[in-house]
Amino acid sequence: MMLPYSYPWLFRRELSRSSTVLDVGCGKGRFLKEVDDGKKRIYDGVELFDPYIRKARKTGLYRRIFRRDIRKASFPMKSYDAIMCSQVMEHFSKEEAKKILRNLKTWTKDTLIIGVPNGHFHQEEYDGNKLQKHHTSFTPEDFGKIGFRVYGQGFKLIYGQGGLLDTRLGRFWICRVLLYILSYSVSPLPYFIPSFGTYLVAVWKRE
Asked: Strands 20-24 and 149-155: what pairing?
């Protein structure tokens, strides 16, 4: 059972009526494993880092994984019922991200789901993958201005960079457990007021 208001729950809910899905920046496929509900659905992925592509293929979830730089990629109009893109846009410049979002809107028949940190989260490259570095940040207003409905996830005061889990309190397991419980108990707050969220899930629907 998936917890309501959780990050993968938001994606699963928005994908529930889609038969074909493009997972942009699919990485190792771990997030799709959380999101997939076991229904017969076709998933394609887009990824540029070869070690991640190999691991994503091993999940058995993807029909195809395209090795492409999403900044330069091209797909036919309305190729997929839905497009999901989790924790990817922050790795590009703001101008690159705007261009990618315009393209993604063109490629989906119905739904586009974007997940990003709320505000700036510092991250350098890791796994030998220079693409992992964060270059930009987003606010709920950034997505609202371009026609997205925005939800928040995870209470930023607890989970955010510099939040309570990053303080001395977070070093003690009992405190961590209590903070997890507190965060979930107030999860509707960031859901309805995204500025309180650690992450943003922005949803665009074709009219």
From this structure: unpaired
Average pLDDT, the chain: 94
Q: State the Cα torsion 67-68-69-72 to the nearest 10°.
A: 170
Q: What is the residue extent of each domain of the chain? A: 7-153+196-205
Pairing of strands 197-205, 108-117: antiparallel
CATH of 7-153+196-205, one of 3.30.9.10, 3.40.50.11540, 3.40.50.150, 2.60.40.10: 3.40.50.150
Taking residues 68-78, what's their average pLDDT?
96
pTM of the predicted model, to two decimals? 0.93
CA separation for the pair 156, 118 (Å, rounded): 8
